[in-house]
Amino acid sequence: MNPEPRMVEVRKNVLKQNDVIARALRERFRSDEILAVSLVSSPGSGKTTFLERTLTLLRPRYRVAALVGDLATENDAQRLARSGAPVKQITTGTLCHLEANMIQKALDGWDVGKLDFLFVENVGNLVCPSSYDLGEDLRLVLLSVTEGEDKPLKYPTIFNSADVAVVTKTDLAAAVDFDEQTLDRNIQAVRPGIQILKLSAKTGEGMREFLDYLQKLRQPRSQAASAL
Ligand SMILES: Nc1nc2c(ncn2[C@@H]2O[C@H](COP(=O)(O)OP(=O)(O)OP(=O)(O)O)[C@@H](O)[C@H]2O)c(=O)[nH]1
Ligand SMILES: [Mg+2]
């Protein structure tokens, strides 16, 4: 018997089961008026740095929390907790992505209904996370200026699964001869019409625009949030 079709079938079932849980999560977030935002990127693109700054800036006005996935270590959870927001680490062991059931389990015992924003940092990987819906409202794909302008063309699936592209570490652009127009063109080639934001979590450049964008997404759902 050829083992290939069976492997495909098993994967299909896993994805189907993931979709069922993701749908339930999405409904829960919607009824609780939570905006769930996930972050995907290659290792080291700046997800934790960007998220720590985002949590810190949002906290004075919004109820925020974060989940963070990694193969090993609690390092990122410790860094994010410096913002003062509640944070939980999900350690995936050998798995290169988060799955919806991990989010569901991590939220057990958390009073999620009281949140305005829930952020989920995925495992650093440009391939695996693209296949798994986590029930999020908004998926951000991060790409730092140091990674090369060709990455959207080489890893199109992750850009296709995202709602917004966030170009990080703009403070390093000159040092690596970053070609902004080429990157924009490559992102638009694989995901036409996607919004592209550019920022540096280190200097804070572009953070205001990102926070404005997030705030606008929440406004139609709740009038409780006022200007940042
Ligand atoms: N210059 C500069 N460095 C940054 C910026 N953001 C992050 N870094 C640095 O980039 C490195 C990786 O940042 P992380 O925030 O750990 O990246 P990550 O995507 O969370 O990494 P993984 O979780 O391992 O995938 C660290 O040395 C950060 O200090 C930035 O805006 N500018
Ligand atoms: Mg990280």
Your description of this structure?
The protein has 228 residues and is an alpha/beta fold. It has a single domain, classed as P-loop containing nucleotide triphosphate hydrolases (Rossmann fold, 3-Layer(aba) Sandwich), CATH 3.40.50.300. It has 8 helices and 7 strands. The protein has helices spanning 3-31, 47-58, 75-81, 100-107, 151-154, 156-160, 180-190, 207-218; strands at residues 35-40, 64-70, 87-91, 117-121, 138-144, 164-168, 195-198. It has a 7-stranded parallel β-sheet, with helices on both faces. Strand 6 (164-168), helix 7 and strand 7 form a beta-alpha-beta unit. Helix 1 (3-31) packs parallel to helix 4 (100-107) and helix 2 (47-58) runs parallel beside helix 3. It is globular, with a radius of gyration of 18 Å. Mean pLDDT is 92; it is low at 221-228. Magnesium ion binds at residues 47-48, 76, 121.
| Biggest sheet: strand arrangement | 3-2-4-1-5-6-7
Our count of domains comes out at 1
Largest sheet: 7 strands, parallel
Share in helix? 25-40%
CATH class: Alpha Beta
CATH fold name, please?
A: Rossmann fold
Radius of gyration: 18 Å
Low-confidence sequence ranges? 221-228
The unique ligands bound to this protein are: guanosine-5'-triphosphate, magnesium ion
Mean pLDDT, rounded to whole units? 92
Q: Label the overall shape.
A: globular
Describe the structure concisely for a colleague.
The protein has 228 residues and is α/β, with parallel strands linked by helices. It is built from eight helices and seven strands, in the order αβαβαβαββααβαβα. The chain has a seven-stranded parallel sheet with strand order 3-2-4-1-5-6-7, sandwiched between helices.
